[in-house]
Amino acid sequence: MSSVPQYLTGDKQGIKAFLDKFDVFLFDCDGVLWSGDHVFPGTVETLSLLRSRHKQIVFVTNNSTKSRADYKKKLDSLGIPASVEEIFGSSYSAAVYISRILQPPPHKRKVFVLGESGIEAELDSEGIPHLGGSDPAYRRDITPADYQAIAARDASMVDPEVGTVLVGLDHHVNYLKLALAYHYITGPNQATFLATNTDSTLPSAGALFPGAGSISAPLIMMLGGPGREPLSLGKPSQAMMDAIEGKFRFDRKRACMVGDRMNTDITFGIEGGLGGTLAVLTGVASRRDVVEGEVRPMAFVDRLSDLLAGEVE
Ligand SMILES: O=C(O)[C@H](O)[C@H](O)COP(=O)(O)O
Ligand SMILES: [Mg+2]
């Protein structure tokens, strides 16, 4: 059983000592920097404190609805200084995995997407053709003709060149898309079943909503349940950690993962062999999860801006 994490809120010297241990901070976004479009008070000041101390900052989000360029716009709109180079999302992680590791053969190079434009933009950035996703042709009710065409594997409905099904948070999921995804995975296409992430919930507006995991769950059930889960390329996937380390070239022992979720963010940092992990209580995890859970961070604070107390010399 892991030890009880250090509680740093209000502990000026403890915060200073904690911050001094690290040169790199990997920041989760939803539940840490903001909740939906509400940026938590003190977030901007805390990040600029770290930058003033020459700490490297990387934004590592599982939220696949936006691309890195979209996140740059969101960070700008919330007054959070950042470069697009500092952003690493699960949709980019999945696109890189497909183009550089999975490398489907030319006749199976297309990806059927259950997700939003963030996935499509990152697949485009890696030159990967895709269908489904935000295409309005799929945002409709299934019809009797659809059943016939899908069952008959009519190429107008079931594209023979689909070799991968990629699932992320999809605010427009529906029966037709789930049916097509199932047939791509189980039919002659034998498509590879991937997910950008499998978070069960999404923290937004101070509450919890269906997460990306709830979008792939019906497919897992249709495929026979446990053992048929998709390969997930978001946190805590170490494929994502390796890609981030490869890009930013940092000493893992001098890096700290900051997150609000134990089974993604904190597990990501621990399994990645990072020097530290810090939890905040403004998102998914409760204090009890942090202090008594199976997975525990090195330290925690009530909110990110509590780190500002570390400014005192
Ligand atoms: O369902 C989801 O996709 C997640 O809740 C969301 O993406 C979490 O984003 P993160 O906290 O990693 O920024
Ligand atoms: Mg989060």
From TrEMBL:
Keywords: Hydrolase, Magnesium, Metal-binding. The active site is at residues 28, 30. InterPro entries: HAD-like_sf, HAD-SF_hydro_IIA, HAD_sf, PGP_euk. Its cofactor is Mg(2+). Mg(2+) binds at residues 28, 30, 260. One of its GO terms (molecular function) is phosphoglycolate phosphatase activity. Pfam families: Hydrolase_6, Hydrolase_like. Its EC number is 3.1.3.41. One of its GO terms (cellular component) is cytoplasm. The keyword Magnesium applies. Divalent metal ions. Mg(2+) is the most effective. Substrate binds at residue 235. It is an enzyme of class 3 (hydrolase). It catalyses: 4-nitrophenyl phosphate + H2O = 4-nitrophenol + phosphate + H(+). This is 4-nitrophenylphosphatase. It comes from Endocarpon pusillum. The lineage of its organism: Eukaryota, Fungi, Dikarya, Ascomycota, Pezizomycotina.
